[in-house]
Amino acid sequence: MMVSGCSTVNPYTREDQTAKATSGALIGAMAGAAIGVASSSKKDRGKGALIGAASGAALGGGIGYYMDVQETKLRQQLEASGISVTRNGNDIILNMPNEITFGFDQSDLSSRAKTALSNVALVAKEYDKTALNVYGFTDSKGTAQYNLRLSQVRASEVSNHLIRQGVGVNRVMTKGMGEAHPIASNNSEQGRAQNRRVEIVLSPIS
């Protein structure tokens, strides 16, 4: 019952998923309880189970706390940058609208975007148990093949800047999504502008 009340929606697959902090705490609690039972005498079995459950829950819930602190620092660094910071379970999503990253149909990062990404890199280097998944998106104008390539190039520009700022290359994944997963209607210029974006999803490394 506890798990069913703590589900979120994956921003790309649109599938329900249990919040990682919650599931980690529950799994840790169950594992800790099992250890406590196995390692205790019959007389102290109940006490051992409670101790094991508490330590297991603390271990599992620690991931959530790690991401909480990281989210707070990202919000501080990106204040007034034009980049939104949202939370989905244990994932932190940075939405970089195209108006602050690239010119129309361009793939060179703006100076404003470079400054913001340098601040993201500062936090990412401090919290090195986090993976950075960089996704590029376009609107639906033009061919799907062209948009897919453009989105990949733009995502790569963002990833390369993070790496140049010292984020480990093994922590950065890049993928162009093209026209997939619009967040607004492509039937208006305002909607298309929202769909042209790069998102950085920060996730705890397993």
UniProtKB/TrEMBL annotation:
Record's keyword terms, sorted: Cell outer membrane, Lipoprotein, Membrane, Transmembrane, Transmembrane helix
OmpA-like domain location, by residue?
A: 89-206
Q: What is this protein called?
A: OmpA family lipoprotein
The answer to whether UniProt assigns keyword Lipoprotein to this entry is yes
Origin organism is: Photobacterium sanguinicancri
Supply the InterPro entries for this chain. Answer: Bact_OuterMem_StrucFunc (IPR050330), Gly-zipper (IPR039567), OMP_bac (IPR006664), OmpA-like (IPR006665), OmpA-like_sf (IPR036737)
Q: Where the protein is mainly located, per its record?
A: membrane
| Localisation per UniProt entry | Cell outer membrane
